[in-house]
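INTERNAL TRANSFER SHEET
From: sequence group
To: structure group
Subject: Magnesium-transporting ATPase

Please process the attached sequence and return the structure record in the designated field. Keep the field labels unchanged so the import script can parse them.
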Amino acid sequence: MQSANPPASPVLTRPGPGGLSDAAVAERVAAGLTNAVSDASSRSAWDIVRANVFTLFNGIVAGSFVLLLLLGQWRDALFGLAAVGNAVIGVVQEYRAKRSLDGLALMNSPSARVLRNGAEAEIAVAEVVLDDLLVLRAGDEVTADGVVLHEVGLEIDESLLTGEADPIAKDRGAGVLSGSSVLSGEGQIRVTRVGAESFASRLTSEAKRFSLVSSEIRNSLNRILRWITWALLPVMLIVVNGQMQVLGGWDVALRTGTWRTGAVGAVAAVIAMVPLGLVLLTSVAFAVGGVRLARKQVLVRELAAVEGLARVDMLCIDKTGTLTEGTIAYDDAHPVARTLPGAWRDVLGWFSSEPGANATARSLHSDYPVGVPLDPVGTVRFSSARKWSAAQFGGAPDAPTTWVLGAPELVLDHDASDALALAADLAEAGRRTLVLAATSAPLPQGSVDEVRLPPGLAPVVLLTFREEVRPDARRTLDYFREQGVQLRILSGDNPRTVAAVARQVGIEGVDGFDARTLPEDGGDLEDVLDRHTVFGRVTPVQKSRIVAALQARGHVVAMTGDGVNDVLALKGADMGIAMNSAAAATKAVSRLVLLDGRFDRLPSVVAEGRRVIANIERVSVLFLAKTAYSVLLSITFGALLWGFPFLPRQMSVTDGLTIGIPAFFLALMANSRRYRSGFLVRSLSFALPAGAIVAAAITAIHVAADLSGIHDLEQVRTAAFVTLGLAGLWILVAVARPST
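Return from structure group:
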């Protein structure tokens, strides 16, 4: 762990208890001590131009184009115009996608809460300056390195930086790192590092930068391009030698100048082998997919994530905020104590109004307003791992002094069987249930990691809460089941409550599995996940382990969530999907953000991913079939010392009519085909036989001409050109099925 920086330079105005003044902020901005870093959400314009223009294949095309111009064969250099057009289209499409995604990223960029001029203010992360006082609460993402000035139950998750999954308690004077997130409690830190000097600036900028994540399509295409690159030189030598031998040998060709004719044939062979538009159309398909999702209020942080959507076969769903509306409404109180302590309403008022209260506790505020002010002598803030919070107050020796609000089955022991039975019945009805319990024993002392429940807790009252199920949840889940996507519902609530909600959204015949009994062994955990669909009392670490176990079973896992307790699982999933209402830390690790929070966006999101991957597969077959017959023709005609059967202009025309123009339509048209693994095998299993058939047909034309005594090369090339055009149209019709 890196230690915090020493205090700021004494020449700067020091912050007071109320934070920096406007003058002190201006002083630091002028000195460049701001949190602004280069953190583009997509590639720069120059990166896009470089990726689409300065490639190996474009270099080969440019060299061939220049050679033909020098030879005076400008009519055979038409492919150069097509290559320029491809590059321009690729740059324009990606730049449009960049502008769209950058705009969404800017509108949904995180903010920081600071104390300035004695008041809290929300500012952009880049506007944080050295010595600012950051105010942290549960769900916040730490935006700059700092030192804790004061805290109340502050627990920080640094797993994204250190890999340590357990929350870390931060006492006064402890260092806090940017890129971590607040799990519970609250605090105030003084910023000690900003901008590029902060611990996580490089990590976070790289994590949020545009990238084409590892994908089956990208990996397969890169493998094919490597094969073609290795084959280009030897095949080109075979073709050039064959051309020269047809012209009477190297000596004759060089002496008479006929080598120029041979060079034209060699260029035609090389250009035919290069799948110029394949990488272009893949990038365009991803970019257009990202723009289409942006129009549906879906922010794609990484364009290749569009492909990942098509591959998902397991969807893990957090209940609150995903299946339900995410708003908690207080329902009723159910007394369970024979005699209710007089202060219980005031205690609930304190729990509902204290700054670190979660959404469930805050929903009590209207029914239990703050009455008698209570001053706790000790508190334990709520955390997703514990499922309870506690406070100790002063009072009469025989009166309850310590109160605990939390999940009944975690707070109460078996002696409170009546209260536990009532809580189970309420949960079975689909209502979230908490218990308020009391004891005269003090809170146990110790660090946050060692916090224990006080002894002698007795239930006072059960509290029930309602959550409204999203009206679109059932229809959305039905879609996924119809599409063969399996579902797992993971929640920190009572398993019976979760199961009741699951039944409301159409998942029948399920009983909630209590995650407290989940096995530690990976194999046993995978078996449990195979048998059960709904899980309750799931801790954040368990959600992450469940995602990893499903991946170990060969599933491609998408995880949806909106809470800090979902961060680890979202980060580990193949596709992390966050709601816009999610905490900043949750959205930071997600690859997709549903900006309008509509769960029913997911079917169209998955459909877009399937459209992209299915269309790229169809397009790749067109280009790979062309490469296959080009290589076979080059080797065959070169080895048999025959002149290459096409001029570059003929290849340009057939490519444009049977591959180039149709490929753009195929790459962008509607396609609802389900994803199936094996992209490369399927593509080659069609492209190689198709290429062999075309090569055999062209070879047969040449053989027939020889047998018929036709030695006019122009006639042979014309026949080959017509044959290639018809064969290309046959491949196009086969690839474009089903016809629309």
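Handover comment: The longest helix spans residues 602-639. Residues 1-10, 202-213 have pLDDT under 50 and may be disordered.
Transfer complete.
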